Amino acid sequence: MVDLYYIEDDPNIALAVKEYLEHKNFHVTICATLAEARQHIKDHVPACVLLDWNMPDGHGDDLCQWIRGHWKDLPVIFLTVRGNSTDIISGFKSGADDYVVKPFELEVLYSRLLAVLRRTGNVADQYLSCDGIRIDQNLHAVFCNSEEIFLSTAEYQLLLYLMQNKGKTVTREKILEQVWDVNGSYVNNNTLTVTMKRLRDKLSQPACLKTIRSVGYRMEDTI
After folding, report:
1. Which of 121, 120, 133, 99 is nearest to 204 (CA)?
2. Do 46 and 154 lie in a common domain?
3. What is the band of 145 on the pLDDT scale with cuts at 50, 70, 90?
4. Quick one: 188 and 210 in the same domain?
5. Do 210 and 131 fall into the same domain?
6. What is the pLDDT of residue 92?
7. H/E/C letters for each residue in 75-107?
8. 138: Cβ–Cβ under 8 A, 6 or more apart, which residues?
């Protein structure tokens, strides 16, 4: 299923859209506020965001600009009322990929969604995150609380492997095998210990990167 976040404070509209799209193989998460949407996106990047313009805690273009500052390739479709060209212009200036005018036919919304996803692909696979740490796999870039962190190849591969297995405890032996051995670099446990220490230092000792004594490590969200 394709993950979709729908930011809409009208429960009747939100539920109708959710029910329709979930029959079309989308998994729809409804957010009733911009703050709720921000938290959901930080926890997990979806394939696309449907964004209503007028929300109880602000305007949609504020969220769109925030998304563009963190996940520049995440597609955003604005939903705006008929005849409000100011909203449409502001939406595109803030980085929206498309817009749909309310009231809309569900079939029209679905076709616009498909068109945007054909152009952009499923960018959710591009991003990994845990608390304030994000990886953009296309750019091979790491960000910690919005600041780019420059890692060595080994540090990046170690973090990437842990993020790909977020929520799971991975043994030291498995990490050595997947991060070093598969590339023909056979190292000992001390190399992993040193690399982990440097990684933690660069990421300001993140609480989400846990040591499981006598076993290995686990990354898990703490906020």
Report:
1. 133
2. no
3. confident
4. yes
5. yes
6. 61
7. CEEEEEECCCHHHHHHHHHCCCCEEEEECCCHH
8. 73, 126
Count CB neighbours of 178 within 10 A.
17
For residues 49 and 96, the model is more confident at 49
Take residue 104 and report the two structure tokens written for it. 């809309």
> What three-state secondary structure class fits 126?
helix
Q: What is the mean pLDDT of the chain?
A: 90
Residue-wise pLDDT for 174-196, tens only, equals 999 999 976 666 678 899 999 99
CA–CA gap between residue 68 and residue 163 (Å, rounded): 22
Instruction: Answer yes or no: is pLDDT of 122 > 80.
Output: no
Q: Of the candidates 106, 121, 136, which is a domain's last residue?
A: 121
Q: Are residues 111 and 19 in the same domain?
A: yes
Range of the domain at 200: 127-219
CATH number of the domain to which 190 belongs = 1.10.10.10
| DSSP result, 23-73 | TTTEEEEEESSHHHHHHHHHH---SEEEEESEETTEEHHHHHHHHHHH-TT
Confidence band for 165, pLDDT divided at 50, 70 and 90: very high
Query: Do residues 115 and 108 make contact, with C-beta atoms less than 8 angstroms apart?
Result: no
Domain count, the chain: 2
Taking alpha carbons only, the member of 101, 7, 93 closest to residue 46 is: 7
